[in-house]
Each structure stands twice: as structure tokens, then as C-alpha cells.
Amino acid sequence: MAKVKLASFAFARSGDKGDGSNVGIFVKNAADYELLKKVLTVDAVKRHFHGICKGEITRYEAPNMLALNFLLRDSLGGGGSESLKTDAQGKTHGLALLEMEVER
Amino acid sequence: MQIAGLGHTICAPMRDKVRIGYGQGFWGDSILGPIRLIREGPLDYLALDYLAEVTMSIMQKLRSRNPKAGFASDFVTLLGRVLPEVHQKGIKVIANAGGVNPSACLDAVLELARKQGIKGLKVGIIDGDDILSRIPALLASGHPLANMDDGRALSAVQDRLLSANVYIGAFAVAECLRQGAQIVIGGRLTDPALVAGPMIHEFGWQPTDFDKLAAGTIAGHIAECGAQCTGGNFTGWRDVKDFVRIGYPIIEGSEDGTFVVTKHEGTGGLINRETVISQLLYEMGDPRRYLGPDCTADFTSAKIEAVGKDRVQLSGIKGGAPTDTYKVSLSYQNGFKTTGQLTVSGPDAVAKAKLCADIVWGRLALDGCTFTENEKLVEIVGAGVCHEGIVKPCDPPEVVLRLSVKCNDEARVDRFGMEVVPLVTSGPPGVTGFAGGRPKATDIVGYWPALLNKHQVQTRVRVEVT
């Protein structure tokens, strides 16, 4: 076991959903998927995104893709064209999740 | 889906496989995408998406100034470069380029074809999605169009509405093709309908073939952002070869709903399980229940396999019946905003950028112009703006200071815009990089998602020939 960034073995994509964003994250094998499901609890993701996400987080599982999908509500400072943020569409939130360090 | 005066007729499958390229992921995508799809390999259909929520309000404004405007003129520019080739090769083009004025787009395309001497070109339009003028009548007859996200009644913004469009599904596209159109121009067609429509037409899928319609929808979802499934925006980007010549996606569809995501041989980019799954997850909500106008789709039912170089197959997709409502996208005027940017060099770039921001707010206050915390934003780009709270604080050699404001008072937003540039000579040293003049107030377009009973919407198809 060593501490590694999710970026070393997982992939992610994010985009906007209303005033929030979605972050999809997935891996390439079943063992890593079990790890992902264990470490990426709603609470852990909420803590990681404390500077970005001001609302609730929902987690969905897509086992056929070895993927988890997170909805981060109120994470865009207003959403769409109402947001003043440079990343008004949450395009970089996937990479932000991949920055998380986990024991693997 | 009701198509006025024309029932959807059962027709025998026309071919085993159909190749549908997706050449435009949004208004502003590279014109090279569609041109290279047409030129660099075989193609049956070319799908082009030009619309987003904000686009419709811009187009309504254009049309209010000029009755011949209000569609994606980029589409006509593209056809100007490729129409003879498209016509000669028999490639069918499906585009939601009609915006809020499909008939004006039709006229522009017909005029272009005549100018280019192309005879016998059939161009069709689909309309009925634009319900802006019907809003008072719909409200009066008990269709509240309440905000899907927060339940607010439309009366809160009715006097400020800019656009109102129903998301139309794939059967209207199929009907337009059945009537012989080689170029299909829609208004607010859903992005996936541009792919599912040709499949319905080619394979004779019926409105109750929910698994197949779900497959067509998912195929469309994968392709709808163009190169985002062929290596673009991929977090494994180091494996992507030749971004310059990145190939745009081609869906090879089969009658049973199985399809392959691929691109023309010899193009750049990358298609593997990971690039396809990345795009499957894009803008995803509940993956078991993706709602569309023609069906619901279960993204977790798909079997996803690499079946060759730059070829990924999806099979076994399950779907269900659609809801009895259409999604409606409304937009409204919701105040004004602007942003000003300056580059601040080191040493002490972050500290100086913070000082610059304080100077701007302070000078504005001296002149009686203030903004609440919700109305202003300071971003020090280069010091961890995108990943706030995640990356460690750092002191980069230079940063970009990005100051933004929003409020209902246009004059106050413009007053802010006057106070950014003076920092170059009246703030800390090393402030530079200002370009583009004073930041000016621009409209904030609010987005209002709602639902409308399907019986209230009638799509119409019209096909003209040169």
C-alpha cells in the first residue's frame, strides 16, 4: 500500500448540470473499482471539494463502466451564464477529483 | 411524437449498417471537423449540433432585429465550402442549425445551392419547437411551465423571457428524411436525435422499440460533443496522438441497436474504452435513467468492448418508455455582468494581485459604487482558481487577476469596467497585459428548464427542392 493520486490509475470527466456539476470517474479493473467505491464516499468527495461545492452531493454507480458519477450541487457560483467563475461549467472538476490521494 | 398530417409509416430496413459522422459539437466548434469527415473516408450521414441554451436567446435577439436572421449562419458558411461534394456523394446532413428561424435557414441554404448551380437538392425543415409566442396561451390553459429545479412559477420571469424551445426528438428527423430531404434543418432538436433520427429512418425502428431507441440515444450522446469521444478532453491525454488532425466520431449503427464508435482511418486522436466511457459520463445524472423525448435509456446496460484499432462497440442497451412531457428550455434576461483581466508579474505576484483587487473595490466605493459579496468575484488565475481548496497555496512567477461583477444595474457594471485599466499606472508595480479596452456590461441570460405535455406540441416538416 502506498499513497497515490487517483490520477495515477483513474480517468474522469466533468461538466455542468444546472447550477452544479457532474464528475464521472472510472478505472480499468475490478479491484480498483472496489477501491474507488470504498474511498469515494459522498462525505470524502464533499470534503475534497469543500472549496468548490456548496451544496449536496449525490453518488451513482455504473458497474458496466467501472464508474462512479457524482452530482455536485451549487458548485459553479450560479451556473451557466450567471456564474462569474472562469470555470463556469465545471470542466476542470474531473481533474480536481483525480488530485485526491488514496492508499492503493 | 405527433407529426401533423403524417403518421410514421412502417418501412423495411434499407441497409444493414449506417455510418453517421458527428462534425460539430457546439456553435463555434472547428469547421475542420465536418470538412474532414466528408473528405477523408466513407460517410452516409453528417450530424451537426449548433445549439446551446444561451444560443437560442442570442438568435431570438438577432431575429428581432432582422426577420431573416436567427439561425446558425456558420452552417451556411460550412455548406458554402462542401455542398457540391455533399450532394455528389449523397451524404445526408442533419443539423439543428435552424435555431429560432428554420425557414430563414432553409431559404439561405436554397439560395446557396442555386448560386452553386446544384439542381435537385432536397432541403427539409422541422419546426414547432419554438413556443415563445404561445407562452401566454399555454399559461392561461393550465400549463404552468414551472422551473424544474426550484419549482418557481414562470410569472417570476415572464416579462423578461428571451426564448422558449421544446426539445424535439428523433422521429421528426426520421420523418423529414422519409420525405426525401438530403439536408435536414431543425430548431431545438436534441443533440442525440441527430444520430437516432437517421437510425430510425434506415432501420424502420418504431416508437415502441425502446431498447433500440435507447441505443440510438446513447450513440448520439457519445458523439454529440464531437471530438470529446475521440481523445479530446481525455484525462489520459498523453496517449492521444496527433491532436492537430483529430478525427471526429463516426457511429456505425446496426438494425439491432448494436453500434461501433470509430473515426476515419489515418486521422489523429484516440478511440478506446476509456475515451468512450469518459464521454458516456459527460453531463450525466442518474445513469440508469437518462430521459429523452423518445425513450428513457439505461447507460448501465451497455456492454462496451474494444473491437479493433480505434473501434469500440456498444451492445445490449436497454431502454424504456419516455415520459408524457417534453423538456422545454426557456431563457430570460437576468441582469448584467462583466469581467476584466490584468497580468501581474512577480515577485509577490499573488500579494500584489490581491492588493489590486482591493484598490478597485475601494476606488469604486469612493465614487458611491459598491457590490455585495454575491455580486463580485476575484480570481487569481495561476494560483489555484480551478481547484480551490485542493491545490496548495503557491507563489507563481506571475498571475492573471480576473475581476468580475454582476447586478441588475447596467450602469453600475459599466462603472466597474472603467476602474480596472487605471491599475496599470496607479497600483503596485508589474501590472500589465491589458487588452481589448474597457470591460462592458453584457446580458446575463438566465436558464429556465420546464416540462410541457406532449399533446401541446406539434412538429411540422417541410421539404423544398432546388
Strand fraction of chain B equals 25-35%
Low-confidence spans of chain B? 1-13
**Largest sheet of chain A, order of strands side by side?**
2-3-5-4
**Biggest chain contact:** A-B, 44 and 50 residues
Shape of chain A: elongated
SSE string of chain A: EEEHHEEHE
The main sheet of chain B comes to: 10 strands, mixed
Strand content of chain A: 25-35%
* Helix coverage percent of chain A: 10-25%
Q: Could you give the count of β-strands of chain A?
A: 6
Gross geometry of chain B: globular
> What Rg of chain B, in angstroms, do the CA atoms define?
24 Å
**Terminal CA distance of chain A:** 5 Å
The low-confidence runs of chain A, each spanning 5 or more residues with pLDDT under 50, are none
Give the oligomeric state.
heterodimer
Straight-line N-to-C gap of chain B: 29 Å
**Which class best fits the helix and strand makeup of chain B?**
alpha+beta
Structural class of chain A: alpha+beta
Could you walk me through the main structural features you see in this protein, from its secondary elements to its overall organization?
The complex is a heterodimer of chains A (104) and B (466). Chain A is 22% helix and 31% strand. Chain A has 104 residues and is of the alpha+beta class. Chain A has one domain (3-78, 91-103). A four-stranded antiparallel sheet of chain A has the order 2-3-5-4. Chain A has a two-stranded antiparallel ribbon with strand order 1-6. The termini of chain A are close together. The mean pLDDT of chain A is 96. Chain B is of the alpha+beta class. Chain B folds into two domains: 17-129 and 167-323, no CATH class; 333-448, Alpha-Beta Plaits (2-Layer Sandwich). Helix content of chain B is 28%, strand content 25%. Chain B is built from twelve helices and 19 strands. Chain B has helices at residues 32-39, 53-65, 73-89, 102-115, 135-140, 170-178, 193-203, 210-223, 273-280, 349-366, 410-417, 423-426; strands at residues 17-24, 45-48, 92-95, 122-127, 161-166, 183-186, 250-254, 259-262, 290-291, 296-298, 303-308, 311-315, 318-320, 325-345, 376-381, 398-407, 431-432, 442-453, 460-465. In chain B, the strands form three sheets. A ten-stranded mixed sheet of chain B has the order 11-12-8-7-1-2-3-6-4-19, with helices on both faces. In chain B, strands 5, 14, 15, 16, 17 and 18 form a six-stranded antiparallel sheet that branches. Chain B has a three-stranded antiparallel sheet with strand order 9-10-13, covered by helices on one side. In chain B, helix 7 (193-203) packs across helix 8. Chains A and B meet through strand 2, strand 3, strand 4, strand 5 and helix 3 of A and helix 9, strand 14, strand 15, strand 16 and strand 18 of B.
